Amino acid sequence: MRISHRVVAAAQRGDGPAREQVAEGYLPLVHNVVGRALNGHPDVEDVVQETMLLVLRDLPGLRQPQNIRAWVLTIAMRQIHAHRERAAAAAHVAVLPTVPGPAADFEELAILRLRLTGERRQVAEASRWLDDEDRGVLALWWQEAAGELDRGEVAAALDTTTAYAAVRIQRMRAQLDRCRMLVAALEARTRCPELDATIAGWDERPGPLWRKRIDRHLRECQKCPEEARGGIAVEQLLVGCALVPIPTATAGGALRGTEGTGGTESTGGTNGGGGAESAGGAAGSGAGTAGRSGVKALVASAAAVAVVVGGVFAYSSRSELEVTASVAPSVIASPAVTSASPAPSPSKAKPKAVVTPSQSSTTTGCGGEGRASRWASWPMPSVKTASYRKLANGTVRDQVTCLEWQGTPAPGVYTFAEAKAYCAKLGGGGWHLPTRVELMSIVDVSRSGPAIDTKAFPGTPARFFWTSTPWAVTKTPLRAWIINFYEGLASNGAFQTGEFNARCVRSAGGSGRPGYRVAAGQVTDPETGLTWQRATSKEMTAAQATAYCDALELGGGAWRLPTLRELATTVDDSRVAPAIDTGAFPDTLKKGWYWTSDRSEPEPDRRWALNYDDGYTNYRDISAGYARCVR
After folding, report:
1. Dist CA 223 CA 196 (whole Å)
2. Residue 204, in any domain of the structure
3. Whole-prediction pTM value?
4. Which of 49, 204, 248, 551 is deepest in the core (most CB within 10 A)?
5. pLDDT tens digits for 99-120?
């Protein structure tokens, strides 16, 4: 984000709204550079906070407002360096922790929130293996490659010339390419046996010693997979990967514990070409401001606004972005039902729903007797057939699936275990955290921000919500499925220690497997009432897939391309590569996009698709896929 010279000049004179605009504009960039340079170190919030405090404090002394962005980045890089020196002095063993704790590291946030896939994700993973100095260079160059900075600003932030900045970037890229090969080799489905012997005893934490050992093996080995020896140029991969939206901890609490920080250091700036500039001096130099407490309040206000700004960044025309702006972590609410999310009263009679012709014969009503204790024992609604009824106790009944939902989400955010515990303790009995297929049933991809019927579910934030479905891959740290109610995307990228929103559901059950019936090239799911084409089509565009299903002649009946929610019912969450019952669907591709009839509301020219690698969904940068028709 670029701030006009007029706004900067007004901010220097002490104009409150202008100062707030400056803080709001540069906080996302500072967060991204600091976060990536320190890779989500627990002190990232403090370093971001210190940087912004110094920026606002010393702004009146900036002599060349046109160079404000380079000046801000110079302060950020100095604070990063100062943090590393403090950490070294305190004899911390690892300045850049690589095993995520309650909050994921920065690269995990990038993978999750920008929805990086393929080689883009590999670059983010590889950056964890870089040395401290290279991580700082990468933090700036990533923003240059994404179009947020120019080379002169990168050079200024590194306090060097443009020519030498190019040298440092080239050195970093060479190391990053080696690390990409390392990541590819470690992630290979059939790993080299000699590599397994090399990493015996490795604790799976990236570090310089293991990087050298693995790199030595890759240089000498003739058996490691060929994909570990090449790849798309990093510049091409990073184009369009803009700012990671500010996470809750930084945005909501950016100014926690700030008393006494940042007030004694005099910061410098640049003229855009490497020259030093006095930045103003004393903490009280901001004429017209309310002192340090005013600065803190200003940055706090900007942090709150920047969450929204982050969403604007993420849902611009850039192609690889996905945003989640969670609210601040909070203590689990009392199991007692609140007025915002009341539990059903046992004394209330459960209303009957009118059974529409689109419903399966297995669902005879919504009084409980029609719900078998099986997985997806109801028809998956399309946008046209979705129907909700608000009950007197504040809950919402889905008249198609017979699932009963909290009318408003659970208060606060929770870890995976906390979210399950919260739902289990709701009054009235029978409440649980929804499975992935259950939560998908209320996603409405014809809407966005949020992707849900807002009349039935008012107040739903456009954020990620937990499902109770763990990822089938059980390597640590464990992950679970989440669904983004900005546009409806399903992701398995959430560590179970992360914190996301939750909405509880009440139903007769959420387990079991579909009892498929296979005959004459068709697979019927009696639980959903859908009949599927058993085979996979050849590769084609989305438009061709629509025409293909419309023209399909197989056992009679009108075939069509499925909706995203319908296709999601075929995913088997206990499997990967492919995540589907291979007895019923034997030719399903391990990694291949299957088209749906749903268009993306944020980007209407793109079509939703599902990948059976593990069942994740997306609509970005998918130009070819396959069809599995339904009727």
Report:
1. 12
2. yes
3. 0.47
4. 49
5. 444 345 666 666 555 555 667 7
SS3 percent helix, strand, coil of the chain, rounded to 5, is 35, 10, 50
If residue 506 lies in a helix (H) or strand (E), which one and from where to where?
A: strand 505-506
Same domain, 71 and 121: yes
Q: How far is CA 250 from CA 48, 69, 95, 473, 618, in A?
A: 8, 20, 19, 30, 27
Q: Enter the DSSP assignment of 284.
A: G
CB 477 within 8 A of CB 100: yes
For 113-141, letters b (16+ CB in 10 Å) and e give bbbbbebbbbbbbbbbbbebebbbbbbbb
- What lies within 8 Å, CB to CB, of 571 at 6+ separation is 436, 437, 579, 580, 610, 612, 615
**Dist. CA 625–CA 80, nearest whole Å:** 44
Q: Is 415 within 8 Å of 103 (Cβ atoms)?
A: no
The answer to whether 524 and 360 are in contact (CB under 8 A) is no
Would 623 be classed as within a structural domain? no
Q: What's the rounded Cα separation, in Å, for the pair 606 and 618?
A: 10
Residues in the chain: 631
Q: Which residues pair with 609 in a beta bridge?
A: 595, 618
The DSSP call for residue 528 is T
Residue 592 tokens read as 């291949």
Neighbouring residues of 154: CB distance < 8 A, sequence distance ≥ 6: 140, 141, 143, 144, 165, 169
Whether residue 220 sits in one domain with residue 84: yes
> Based on the domain organization, do 137 and 272 belong to the same domain?
yes
What angle do helix axes 291-314 and 16-38 make, rounded to 10 degrees?
A: 70
